[in-house]
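ok trying this again, last paste got cut off
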Amino acid sequence: MHEYSIVLALIEQCEQHAAQHQADSIERVSIKVGVLSGVEPDLLKTAFDTFKEEGICKGAELEMHIQPLVLHCQDCDSKQEIGEYNIICPKCQSSNTRVLDGEDMYLMQLEVGPKVAAVG
């Protein structure tokens, strides 16, 4: 299950951003997951909930935005948003299409907690 390695890399990226901004915690992790990214959202959520307990993301909520497939048809010159695994133009049924969006997974935003100074 490659979602585990994806989550480990995501948490590492979160830790790096938190360190750069002197944050003690991460409250929310917002990601964009394309329908053609090869990532299964339910498995990703389970993996995140499992691995977050070990570090700075312990209390974090994972917010996923599923990005539909966006195609440009080179035959009818239309741009279509499709919510499924299909690269056929829904307007003219051509397979002469180019994927514009929906293939990747991105870290979009982090909500971090403040660094708390030690007292004493």
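PB: full thing came through this time. The radius of gyration is 18 Å.
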